[in-house]
Design a protein that fits this description.
Blueprint (H helix, E strand, L loop, with lengths): L7 E5 L3 H13 L2 E6 L13 E3 L5 H8 L4 E4 L6 H9 L8 H8 L1 H10 L7 E4 L12 E5 L9 E2 L4 H13 L4 E5 L3 E11 L5 E3 L3 E6 L2 E7 L6 H18 L3 E10 L4 E7 L9 H4 L4 H9 L13 E8 L9 H11 L4 E4 L9 E9 L4 H17 L2
Parallel strand pairs: 1-2, 1-4, 2-3
Antiparallel strand pairs: 5-8, 6-7, 6-8, 9-10, 9-11, 9-13, 11-12, 12-15, 13-14, 15-17, 16-17
Helix pairs in contact: 1-9, 4-5
Length: about 375
C-alpha cells in the first residue's frame, strides 16, 4: 500500500496521547496527521504530517481534516462551534460534537447521566454563593469546564469557605458544579471502545492511585474487586458510551465506596492515562483500539497479557542527580530489564507527566511488581 492509499486519520492535539496514537498508526500502516500548536510538541516531534495551529482555529482543523477519513482528539478542549462547523462540512468527527460536549462540561455530564440513572454523587448547579449547599459528608467544587490532574477542583472545609470559592469562580465567569464529597474506598477506571456501527468492547477494570489529584499508579486489573462490581462497572461504561453515541475509546472514572457501590466521577472521550497499561499489558492497546474505532474497523481483543500490569507515571522533578535522561534510561535498563519505558519528549517540569513505565507480572507478586515499577518511575523522574 502506498502512502497515498493509506487511510488517514487527523488528530487534534500534539500531546503525548497523539504521540502514542501515532506509534499505533505506524504499526497498522495508517497515516496520522496531528494538529499541534508548536513544532516541538510531543506528537509533532515524530509525525511527518503536522498542521500547526490551535484547537480553537477552524481553518487549522479544516486543513487537518482535508483528505482524512475521520478527525479525532487527544484532548477535549475544542470549541463546540468549531466541531459543529466541521460536521456541517461533512467531516466525520469522532467522537461527535454532541457526544464530546458531555466530556467538555461536567455539569452537562452530570445532568445527562442522571437522566438515565447512572450512579453518581449528589450534585448541584450553583449560580449564587448564598445558595451553595453543604451536605453532611462535605462538598467538592469544580469548574464545569477545563481542569485536569487536580486543577479546577476545590475541597472547602466549611460552608463559608465554599461560598467564597463559588463567589470567586462566578466572578471569573465560570460555571460551578458542586458535588457531594464521596467517602471513597479507592478510585477505579473502566475503559470502553465503541465503533460507529455500535460494536463495543471493554478492558478489565483498573485501580487508579491518586496523589494531589494526579494519577500516579494504575493497577490492572483492580485487585480484590468483587466480580459482580467489576461487571457492573464494565456494563456502565458500555451503557454510557452507547447512550451518548461515543465513537473511539472512553475512560469512565469511578469511585468505589466502602459499602460496595460504584459512582461515576468523570468521563474522558479519548485515550486516557488509566489505559496506558494496555500498551504492554493487553492484546490490543487503547491507542490501536481508538484508531480501529474511528476508522470503523472491527475492534481488537482487549484481553490482558499477564495476571497483573502496573503502570507508573514519570513526573518531572526539580531535584535530579545530575544525570541526563539518557543516562538514567541506560542505568534503568541494566537494573530492571523487564520494565517498559515510554517517554513523551516533554521538557521536565515539577508536576508534569513526562512519561510512564509498565511492568507485568503474576498477581501473587503484585507488591514486588508495583515496587519495581514505582522505583523505576522515580529513578527516571529524579534519579533517586
Amino acid at each position: 500500500m502506498t502512502s497515498s492509499e493509506q487511510p488517514l486519520v487527523a488528530m487534534v492535539g500534539g500531546g503525548q496521547l497523539a504521540r502514542m496514537t501515532h506509534q499505533a498508526a505506524i504499526a497498522l500502516g495508517r497515516g496520522l496527521r496531528v494538529v499541534a500548536e508548536r513544532p516541538d510538541d510531543p506528537a509533532a516531534q515524530i509525525s511527518p504530517d503536522v498542521v500547526l495551529g490551535k484547537a480553537s482555529e477552524l481553518e487549522a482543523l479544516r486543513r487537518a481534516a482535508q483528505g482524512a477519513v475521520a478527525l479525532t482528539f487527544d484532548h477535549e478542549q475544542v470549541p463546540q462551534d468549531v466541531l459543529v462547523a466541521l460536521e456541517a462540512q461533512g467531516v466525520a468527527v469522532h467522537p461527535s460534537a454532541s457526544a464530546l460536549r458531555f466530556a467538555q462540561n461536567k455539569l452537562l455530564m452530570r445532568e445527562r447521566l442522571a437522566e438515565f440513572g447512572a450512579p453518581a454523587p449528589g450534585f448541584w448547579r450553583v449560580e449564587d454563593p448564598e445558595a451553595c449547599p453543604w451536605p453532611g459528608s462535605g462538598l467538592v467544587l469544580k469548574t464545569a469546564s477545563g481542569g485536569y490532574d487536580g486543577r479546577g477542583v476545590w475541597f472547602p472545609q466549611s460552608k463559608e469557605e465554599a461560598r467564597e470559592v463559588v463567589a470567586q469562580l462566578l466572578e471569573a465567569g465560570q460555571d460551578v458544579l458542586a458535588e457531594e464529597k464521596v467517602a471513597a474506598k479507592r478510585e477505579l477506571s473502566a475503559m470502553v471502545a465503541r465503533s460507529p456501527l455500535g460494536q463495543v468492547c471493554v478492558w478489565p477494570v483498573v485501580e487508579t492511585v491518586q496523589e494531589n489529584g494526579m494519577c500516579t499508579v494504575v493497577i490492572a486489573p483492580a485487585q480484590n474487586l468483587d466480580e459482580s462490581l467489576a461487571a457492573q462497572a464494565q456494563k456502565l461504561a458500555i451503557d454510557i458510551a452507547t447512550e451518548l453515541g461515543v465513537v473511539g475509546v472512553m475512560a469512565v472514572e469511578l469511585f468505589e465506596t466502602a459499602d460496595g457501590r460504584i459512582l461515576v466521577n468523570e468521563l474522558a472521550m479519548r485515550p486516557h492515562n488509566s489505559g496506558h497499561w494496555t500498551m504492554d499489558g493487553s492484546t490490543t492497546s487503547q491507542f490501536e483500539q481508538h484508531l480501529r474505532a474511528v476508522l470503523d474497523y472491527p475492534l481488537g481483543d482487549p484481553s490482558p497479557l499477564a495476571e497483573v500490569t502496573v503502570m507508573a507515571n514519570i513526573v518531572g522533578s526539580s531535584a535530579t542527580n545530575g544525570m541526563s535522561m539518557d543516562e538514567r534510561v541506560h542505568h534503568l535498563m541494566g537494573r530492571s530489564p523487564r520494565v517498559k519505558v515510554h517517554l513523551y519528549g516533554k521538557e521536565p517540569r515539577p508536576g508534569r507527566k513526562i512519561g510512564h513505565v509498565n511492568l507485568t507480572g503474576r498477581a501473587a507478586d503484585l507488591d514486588a511488581v508495583r515496587q519495581e515499577a514505582e522505583r523505576a518511575a522515580r529513578w527516571l523522574s529524579a534519579g533517586e
